[in-house]
Design a protein that fits this description.
Layout (H helix, E strand, L loop, with lengths): L1 H29 L2 H16 L10 H25 L14 H13 L2 H12 L4 H8 L3 H23 L1
Length: 163
Amino acid sequence: MAKARLVEEPLRAAFEEHYADVLRFCRLVSGRRDVAEDLAQEAFVRLASKIDRLEPGAIGPYVRRIAVNVWKNRLRRLALERRHPAERPEPAPGAPSMEGRDELMTALRRLPVRQRACLVLRYYEDLSEKDTAATLGCSVGTVKSSTSRALARLRKELADADR
């Protein structure tokens, strides 16, 4: 707690002295107030771990330099996202609708914990039976039987829901 107070006071003083200037700088660099606020806040967050090593006169230029680096990183990330837009995969043929997914999740939550864990590890995490057994701390046979029981129960519950 004492260490936090040692950093807290100089950081608070630096924030009070430099935040308006850094925010204005970030506003001019980014062209948007909301982005500028994010940049300025991130700059002060990054400054916190280094504030105790800086001379008082070096804090203003240093926090601006941090803001520039944060801005550059943001621009790089945006450029990368534009070059490689996230593609939304088409639903697989026979994939359940949103209502079907809700029913499946509800049925999955009703399974006993071990059965649910087996299904999630085997089919969502795509682990082998051996790796699933190691993760759960049980035998491969237990994984096989629990998975089989869970699938049977899901099939029954989902078939009953379709009626």
